[in-house]
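Can anyone check this?
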Amino acid sequence: MTQTAPTPARVAGGAAHGAPKRRDLPAWPVASILAFYPIWWALGLGVLIFALMAVPMLFLLIRRRAAGRPLRLPPGFAFWVIFLAAVVVSIGALGADPAGTVAEHATGRLPAVAYKALMYASLTVLMIYAGNLTEAELPKRRLVKLLGWLFVVTVLGGLLGMVAGTFEFTSPVEWLLPPGVRNKGFVQSLVHPYAAQIMDIVGEGQPRPAAPWGYTNTWGNNFCLLVGWLIVAARSSRAKFWMIVCLAVSIVPAVVSLNRGLWIGIGVLVVYVAARYVLAGKLWIIGAVAVAGAMLAVTLVATPLGDVVGARMDNGKSNGVRSFLIDRALDGFTGSPVIGYGGTRNTLGGRNSITVGESAGCERCGNFTVGGNGQLWQLLYAHGAVGTVGYLGFFAYGLWRFRRDRSAIGVAGSAAIVTSFSAMLWYNSLVTPLAFTVLAFALLWRNSSEGDTTT
């Protein structure tokens, strides 16, 4: 009896049955967050989209691992695990009431802490997922363009906040929530879209751009984190013109935002990038920075924008409050230096008297949030030395690990992380600023893994 030689199809079929199936990671969970963020914001999902998309990303990662494909973890991930462990362990201190803070039961503090822990976990999944995508699944160039697109969205949101500062609307998600839930301030900050925050920093009722990031400080933080990606994405000659237009237009909302942290962040960004280029022997960057600085100076002198900057520098109303909160955070750190207090606390009264507090007529007169004025202070106060070392150690190790990456992505990615270090003195990172920071880390990680560090 003769045997029939197996056909290629039968061999392939047998191999398919005998070996694990190849499980590619689709790009849509990451791409859809970034490409459609304005839609998520308008729907009332906003930052919640990161937690929602973390579910399919986690499932796809587990499925890929089960199929036999290796799952890579980012360099220095042990530091990040230490940070996450500190976030969880510190929850045990939620019942503590440090001196000078409003007493509250641990259960009352738990929802906000659980939300932050969920977001930290979701962004961890995002980082691992984005770092495990291959060039065939999601090209780095496409991811850079998506981040550059979000800078354009930031500028457009800033312009909207300038011309229609009172613009707001009830989102579909907000409509679906019970009145008792959707009327809470914290819930409103998540699901209620608005164009600007109205504040009286240099004049009564001054609109400060916030869309689509929820807060003016977050808007400024994301401005610094995303601007580099627009420049990298627009390296082609045709796109450079529109990039220059966008950067020129962005000066207006950046100044009108009255956001000193943003102005400092841009300065840090420019100095860092210029230093990297000089060390690489590209001395032309010195001339480029000088020309850009001269043009900015002329713009400030020749337009009303200069008066806005001057007025902001003469009105440092938040300086006293920030100093007060930094002192409270450091005092709290000495009281629980290892694991912190699990979350933020509200101060008794204001900086001048414990009898001063929030009221309908003065919402910012007291009961300030300790740890709400910068990621560094929140880390020290809420998660102690362990959480702070884990968080800072992870990103610092990334900067050291990828220090030789001289590619455009390498410089932009490391610049974003350096900017985040500067911003943590006055900005909190959750949710979108940290999301863009971990995506910058993922791009550096992929660049190193794929050997694209010199172009």
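Reply from J.R.: I decoded it. Strands lie at 196-199, 206-209, 345-346, 369-370.
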